[in-house]
Design a protein that fits this description.
Elements: H1 2-10, E1 22-26, E2 32-37, H2 46-56, E3 65-68, H3 82-88, E4 93-96, H4 108-115, E5 119-122, H5 126-132, H6 134-141, E6 146-154, E7 158-161, H7 172-184, E8 187-191, H8 192-198, E9 214-218, E10 237-241, H9 246-254, E11 257-261, H10 271-280, E12 285-288, H11 292-300, E13 306-312, E14 319-321, E15 338-345, E16 348-354
Parallel strand pairs: 3-4, 4-5, 6-12, 6-13, 8-9, 8-12, 9-10, 10-11
Antiparallel strand pairs: 1-2, 1-3, 7-14, 13-16, 15-16
Helix pairs in contact: 3-4
Length: about 350
Amino acid sequence: MRQALDQAAQARLLAPPNPAVGCVIVDAHGQILGQGHTQRVGGPHAEVMALRDAAAQGRSTQGATAYVTLEPCSHQGRTGPCCDALVAAGIRKVVASLADPNPLVAGNGFARLRAAGVEVEVGPGAAEARELNLGFFSRMVRKTPWVRMKIAASLDGRTALANGDSQWITSPAARADGHTSRARACAILTGIGTVLKDRPTLDARLANTPRQPHLVVVDSRLETPPNASIFIAGRALFISASGQNDTKKQALEAAGATVLYLPGAEGRVDLAALLQELARREINEVHVEAGRTLNGALIQAGLVDEFLVYLAPKLVGPGLDMAQLLPLAQLSNAVPLQFTAVDRVGPDIRITARIPGRDQF
């Protein structure tokens, strides 16, 4: 199963919106016959890749055992059912880490394997396999993506000077590492303030990735210029607004965007509704890179699952903070966090923290 999990990890930047799955097929003596992982959406799944690998080497899989990090699919989607492919290949036993939370599978794959006389064991590697696919599990179970907020700040918590200057607080190594986090996500989420002030592209160009995430802009009044640098050929761009303006909508959609009207309170975008809409569009993970206003709104609404914070070894003094939050009357009302990792990235520190219990779904 260790090799299957390693295969799954290789699919992490490739597979979304499908789950990252790995498969290793071994003979009765434990010798590897074939291995593989999920390909880009519409391509073969891990089990088929492992079977093809074995066939390419002239190795029979009759009576073999398949180790796979997620229940083999049982439905006809963009590809055929993997459980049928395993049965046809003569697989005797399947060892799987987890059941697939997708309602189209959800135990049916295991049932079809057992009905065909294949022995099924479930459990080995479950925690790691689930962690690799938190976004997929979130979308399937909670009907909302896993939301990770990335923040780059000085040691005293400033993301920019008082005049807005923020380039660059953290090091090139931290910026490259942040692009890898972008690449993991199905979509990057930002606000109109960032678009207008920084004129960013918000892609994952510094990461070695075969797939660029979508971009989502929270733009209540549709102020995004149709010639903004965020318009990149081949990348889906969603602009969410609270008020309807068909003239601006037509201009933005002519430039390649999809405009979503999601009115909320006080003329703002309904952020919870936006995340639910993104889940319906097969978005597993959302990577937030925004200013203090949108950061604060997402945190206050309880919509952030995880924080990715890069702290630079410098003190800035007065400036802009990480998020615009309401003042607390007492410390017991603070947002609780649990550090899951603290690492050095170049000269900076990378802190990963989660809302306690948020990953229990």
